[in-house]
Amino acid sequence: MSGAKTKRPELREQRRRGRHRCWDHLIVAPLWVAYDANLGTLLRTCDAVGGCLAVPRTPHYRQALAKGDTLKGRRPCIHWVAPSKEVWLDEQRAAGKRLVAVELAEGATPLPRLEPARDSTVLLLGHEHHGIPDAVLAQVDECVEIPMIGWGASLNVAVAGSLVAYRLAGLS
Ligand SMILES: C[S@@+](CC[C@H](N)C(=O)[O-])C[C@H]1O[C@@H](n2cnc3c(N)ncnc32)[C@H](O)[C@@H]1O
Predict the structure, then answer these.
(1) 93 CB contacts (<8 Å, ≥6 apart)?
(2) What is d(CA 47, CA 87) in angstroms, rounded to the nearest whole number?
(3) Measured in angstroms, how far is the CA atom of residue 15 from the centroid of ligand 1?
(4) Is ligand 1 within 6 A of the CB of residue 47?
(5) Confidence category of residue 117, pLDDT binned at 50, 70, 90
(6) What is the pLDDT of residues 35-65, one digit of tens each?
(7) N or C: at which end does the chain have fewer Cβ atoms within 10 angstroms?
(8) Which one has a higher pLDDT value, 15 or 116?
(9) In this structure, is residue 15 part of a structural domain?
(10) pLDDT of 4-32, one tens digit each?
(11) Is residue 58 helix, strand or coil?
């Protein structure tokens, strides 16, 4: 690192690839996530990995994302989930997308063994207190669990979603 000459602001500029283009390969779907800060963080992760964000079309999500959008308008595209989460999930399945849930669950794939996404994938994230509903978990193609060795029972949902999104995007 001693030979590094390029300054950080220049590096930031060099590494910008330009505006988001929706190519539907990875859609991060925090359909049950409630807190504004977590939604804002996930929006930035989508930008970083070239993914899209999908959230219910409700005033709560619109306001949370307007508040949490720190990307100065150059944010990734948002897919509005309507008329209901159930119908939208059925449509994604019918369109051939893989549904991957990030959740603590029996039989889940440990994160280090997760392969980058080859097919178009929807990444589901659960509520801060209640997780992903069991009925939804029963229908996903794969569930991913992030191993933890500490005392806490779970990670912050935006951290968990970001770790898995990076892996699916083939960037970690
Ligand atoms: C704070 S956790 C929910 C904990 C909730 N009390 C429960 O028991 O389901 C919120 C969300 O973060 C994600 N999450 C957090 N830690 C995780 C882990 N270690 N592995 C997989 N998903 C995790 C899941 O999507 C989960 O639904």
Answers:
(1) 99, 139
(2) 26
(3) 32
(4) no
(5) very high
(6) 999 999 999 999 999 999 999 999 999 998 8
(7) N
(8) 116
(9) no
(10) 688 888 887 777 776 667 777 999 999 99
(11) coil
CA nearest neighbour of 101 among 141, 146, 44, 47: 141
The CATH number for 119's domain is 3.40.1280.10
CA of 154 to the centre of ligand 1 (A): 5
Amino acid identity, residue 110?
Answer: P
CA of 72 to the centre of ligand 1 (A): 29
Task: Give the residue numbers spanning the domain of 72.
Answer: 27-168
Q: Is the CB of 145 under 6 A from ligand 1?
A: yes
Reduce the DSSP state of residue 35 to 3 states and report it.
coil
Give yes or no for residue 100 CB within 6 A of ligand 1: no
146 lines ligand 1 (CB under 6 A): yes
Q: Check if 95 has its Cβ closer than 6 Å to any atom of ligand 1.
A: no
* Count of structural domains within the chain: 1
